[in-house]
Design brief:
This protein has 182 residues and is mostly helical. It is built from 9 helices and no strands. The relative contact order is 0.19.
Amino acid sequence: MFRSLFAFELRSHLRRPTTWLYMATIFLIAFFAIGTEAVIVGPALGKVKKNSPFVLSQVYGIVLAIGQIITSALVGSAVLRDFDAGVHELLFTTRITRRGYLGAKFLAAFLAMLLVFLALPLGSLLGSVMPWVDPETLQAINLWHYVHPYLIVVVPGVFFLSAMLFAVGSLTRSAFSVYVAG
């Protein structure tokens, strides 16, 4: 029962246009942060290159902080959807446990958020290879420099934010509380 509920929830997140809109927004922020001089996110000044691991970590952390709003919306809707529709009581008459129900919803929301924030390394990488970017401000492209900050900064950050907001939503059953916590 856990597997089918998890698959249903994940498909539900992937079918929503807002999920892809959030991903596009994060992609564009990362793309413009690395690919243009108009958007300055992170300390890429002086001899520090715009696609160095330090700058990418800073960019990912700043976008993750901005993305709390996105996490509130996506995770909050995941936990509150059944309560708002009033079908949570019907779900608990089936053989799924409360732990399985909440676990499947959380895991699906967490994976959807990781997919949304996967736009960070993709946007940064694409911004680094644009022809209008001054090559003096970039270092040689190394894929690990884009993936490592994602694994070190984004994955734990998304997990913490998702867990906190999911817990607030499941305990209070209030969208207002989820957004205030975010």
